[in-house]
Amino acid sequence: MGREVSESCVDSLLTEIVSTYCNGFYANKPELAARRIEAIGYQVGHQLSERYTMERPRFSDHLEAIKFICKDFWSELFKKQIDNLKTNHRGTFVLQDNRFRWLARMSVDPSSENSSSPQDPSTMAENKAAQAVGMHLYFPCGIIRGALSNLGIPCAVSADISNLPACDRNNITKRNFDPCLVAPLTAHCELS
Amino acid sequence: MAPVAPRSGDAIFASVERVNAELFTLTYGAIVRQLLTDLEEVEEVNKQLDQMGYNIGIRLIDEFLAKSNVSRCVDFKETAEVIAKVGFKMFLGVTASVTNWDADGMSCSLILEDNPLVDFVELPDTCQGLYYCNILSGVIRGALEMVSMKTEVTWVRDMLRGDDAFELQVKLLKQVSEEYPYKDDEYSEV
Q: Name one GO biological process term (chain A) (predicted).
């Protein structure tokens, strides 16, 4: 294992990237903020995949490369692999990490889960929260796109925010008061 | 006598969640690069990095106090030692040394010979005037402000500018005394 730093260092940087671009520079232009955050991720993914593939033979096909991202690459970054990989065999791959570290500490007011009527103000609050969480997804999407494009696979990557981190009530026991957050990340890679 | 603060952050660093430092280093590098593109002026980038550091520092102090078990420092000298030996170690995994104290103990230097922020980094000529690690000075300033110390933190030496180490000067400007909303003698035993 190489050099390490505390996880808080990376968490702090991510929080600051999002708040700098969303609240500072582009407070009223979320799509511009998103593009910048994605660009930072792209740069990181591009450089990391260059490093992690240095001593490897060329990948024989796209699937090989995507499997590398799901296994080795993801393990280097998150100490776990992608949990599920699916494809429609027409160039779209869906990567799912059921317990994504960067979302695991983010919480959304659980009381808003119960409401379903669209006019309900708490649903609007939920949408706002969804938007805030959504901003945090551009960085990992950028990383995946950067890594794949460095492997010669240009693609578009988007993440699904329909599954917001939610409090898994079954996991709260007296012993463990901290609600255990289930934070799935679902990334769609469309090869171009 | 006050309990002795831990003199090293080794044990704490070993116990916290850690991640691959390359991810951290490259993410920071990508941020600086993006800021240079967006802000254009190097001075503005320095300011932005310092501000981001400050925002991080005011949050990180809580984690530091919660995990490090240090008790109140008796003076600024002890504060500087704790930052160098426990603070840096606990988050970045490296230790700094403290030197260059002025006569009245209000200003000192933190020297960092190993700095994970600058692994793989070389500055092009167009970035002269950039304090690449300026986020660090912001973190220290922000964290100390939360424990009632107003400080000024400036770079004296920078390896990316050809010096032999990183040297941060930390100057204590004002110690804001904590004010309680009540006086002890207003209460009596019941």
A: endoplasmic reticulum to Golgi vesicle-mediated transport
